[in-house]
Design goal:
The chain is mainly α. The chain is built from eight helices and three strands, in the order αααααβββααα.
């Protein structure tokens, strides 16, 4: 196990779709209720069901999700659906209707040390999200004790390659924003910063350390 999160633990019935800690309409106007409902109850639920089907009856059905990402990412079904499960579970957990602003404390200091300033980090992160061709994710990760930014295609994540442990991620698949923003990915990314829960990100950062 890489670090403890509410979605790291598997029970005897397989992985479960995490419940959101806020209503589907709570992130409006930045992310609309219809997108949230479809994204969570259809897309994420689909990854969850397909992941459970892929590991059922194998030695993988006793592994935590992060262990699967590290050890079994060369299995296409586990890679795609396990990645979709893990990525979205993190995504929901670092957003809040009370989000926005800037991080403080040790996370804020680490961002300043790694990028020069919070605004510089936002600019680099937004660029990674904007320039990810097609579908994928952008990430803020802890790697070798420092913070770094990268992006991955499809439902891949940095755990699969050992390039870092994500503490913040944005979904740039079109299903994450198209209903409100159409092809305007840049507008979605800009709006998304208003719902980032820096307290939750800081908690993950501390758990990684």
């Amino acid at each position: 196990m890489i670090f403890n999160t509410p979605f790291s633990v598997i029970d005897t019935m397989g992985f479960e779709l995490p419940e959101l800690e806020y209503a589907y309409d709570a992130l409006e106007p930045h992310i609309d209720a219809e997108t949230m409902e479809l994204h969570h109850s259809k897309h994420h639920a689909g990854y969850t069901a397909k992941l459970n089907a892929a590991i059922e009856g194998t030695e993988m059905d006793a592994m935590g999700i992060e262990e699967l990402m590290v050890e079994k990412f060369d299995n296409a079904a586990v890679r795609n659906n396990g990645g979709g499960y893990w990525n979205h579970s993190l995504f929901w957990s670092i957003m809040s209707p009370n989000g926005g602003g800037a991080p403080s404390g040790s996370l804020g200091n680490a961002i300043d040390d790694s990028f020069g300033s919070f605004e510089s980090m936002k600019e680099e992160f937004s660029k990674a999200a904007m320039t990810r061709f097609g579908s994928g994710w952008a990430w803020l990760c802890v790697g070798n004790g420092d913070l770094c930014i990268c992006s991955t295609p499809n439902q891949d994540n940095p755990l699969m390659t050992g390039s870092g442990i994500p503490i913040l991620g944005i979904d740039v698949w079109e299903h994450a924003y198209y209903k409100s923003y159409g092809p305007g990915r840049a507008n979605y990314i800009q709006a998304w910063w208003n719902v980032v829960d820096w307290g939750a990100v800081a908690d993950i950062y501390e758990s990684v350390l």
